[in-house]
Amino acid sequence: MISPRHLFFILLTFGLIAALAYLYQKTEAVDLSKRNDVIGLLRELQEIDGRWDLDVLNMRNEITPGQTSVSNRTTAAQNALRMLANAAPLVNSPALNANLEQITKAVNEKAELIEQYTDASTQSRNALRNLMFVEEEPMPMEDDAIESAIKSRNKKARQEAKQKALQAEIKLKQQLEFIVSIKLLAEAATGYYWMGEEAQRISLEIASGRVLDLSANIDELARERAAALYDAAMTLLASKNAERDLSEKLASSTAGTRLDGLVLSFNRELETTLGEKERYRVYMIFYAAALLIGIGYLGIRIVAANEMLEHRVAERTSELSDALRHLKESEAQLIQSEKMSSLGQMVAGVAHEINTPLAYVNNSLNAVNDRLPEITDAINNSEQLLVLLNDPNVQPEELNRQFSVVATQLGEIKQHELLGELTGLVKDGIYGTGQVAEIVSNLKDFSRLDRSKTSSFNLNDGLESTLGLARHLLKSIQVNKQFGEIPEISCAPSQINQVFLNLVTNAAQALPPQGGEITLVSRSEKDGVTVEVIDNGSGIPPDVLPKIFDPFYTTKEIGKGTGLGLSISYQIIKDHGGNIRAESESGKGTKFTIWLPRVAPSETSLAA
Known about the structure:
The strands form 2 sheets. Strands 2-4-5-7-6 form a 5-stranded mixed beta sheet, covered by helices on one side. A two-stranded antiparallel sheet has the order 1-3. It has helices at 4-26, 32-61, 68-91, 94-132, 144-151, 155-195, 198-215, 220-251, 255-316, 318-389, 396-415, 418-444, 459-469, 493-509, 565-575; strands spanning 455-457, 478-483, 489-491, 517-524, 528-535, 579-585, 589-597. The chain is α+β, with helices and mostly antiparallel strands. A hairpin with a 3-residue loop joins β6 (579-585) and β7 (589-597). Helix content is 72%, strand content 7%. The chain has 4 domains: 28-129 and 252-273; 135-245, no CATH class; 330-439; 449-605, Histidine kinase-like ATPase, C-terminal domain (Heat Shock Protein 90, 2-Layer Sandwich), CATH 3.30.565.10.
């Protein structure tokens, strides 16, 4: 049970660590790149808002302003808002999170108002152009027939001619009055377009009505013309009225104000955050200094207390320590004896196996070394020939002499087939190093330091490595491999290979000098993999069979075994969650059966 004093120190330690973690979290660096991106987007929206205001001013003061930029700015504003919404979660700004929705709404509303204002302004300009740029109709000319009739002596004809002339004059006056009304309508439309006051509006309505009334007494063409002018005037009145309403709404838009406020708030927030970070850095420096002083003080106290405790423990447990030391020494000597026994067998076999390929390599390298001077001399003479060829002052006799020397050496190299011989020697050396690499690869699995580390492993590969490593023991023994299709299992490969090597070594030692046979079988089962090591040796007596897995039990002569091999193998298989059993019949042989699950226990149980 934990004492109150120990509990207090535990809670104090956790509290100090928590305070340090809090200060560290408070001093984490601010990602200025993302905040700069947000500032850039806000500045872009401010610029777009200002451009919109300029667009409205231009549409008021110009007849034919551009409209493409207005649409482009709307698209740019929407893109900036979308990027701002994506960046908001990354900067974690309260000011941005609190105002983003209102700013988005205000900017979108202003964009919509700008679009509507642009449409209304376009309609106004088109209507004004339709009212201003109207071609005047040609003045009607007097008919020559009427003039001749008036000059004739026929009284009736003169009266009819005068009547027609009077009607033509009336019609001419009406046409002139109609043309004048059109001009007045254009002037009224121009005044209303630029001034937009009530008096101009009334003048425009009166002028448009008068044009329509005067056209009723003229021809069909005039009436159609008057109707078109009247429609244009009404369009101008409606669009200018809508334009005026939209202008008032744009003037009351809060987009610019909100953007300015958010930029100020965002910058002020950043300044506050940076100031807070700096302040907490100062806090953490003082806290760390105090913590180091406290840790130093506690360390001194702990060292003093530990020295006192060690002195007391040393006095009271000296006899127990001596006994434990002797026991550990004995245990270590026994385990070391088993390891040295297995190591001696492996080293002897590996040394014998490596000597043969090393002989390949040694002979090949010596032969190559004997041939190299001949090639080196030919290369040096060839280089001298190249120098002479590049010398413009060289004597022909000297050049011919050097060329003859090089040709002679190259001919000897070709005649002796020196390059082919060197190629064969290099191949022999490569073959020898390949054999050494194979032996070292097999030995690697039995010398790994991370013996308790689990990994996916195919037991067939482990059996192959074991056979390669124990090759010197199996030269006169027939080995039958009956490997099935098995899945990889989770295990400590180094430990499993140690078990395989122990079983194969024991089987080889149980066989007669000539004619022995070892069979290795692997097969997949429902929840794991089974491996069998079978020999046709002398077998194990029935009274000995139950004891073979006991520590220190051995049937070998004194000095040839420790009795720990099968005991260690049994413990390895058990730690892997598997089982190992032995079946034997005297004079017929022995079979060891190992079963391992597909998934091994945790690594902590697989102690080396």
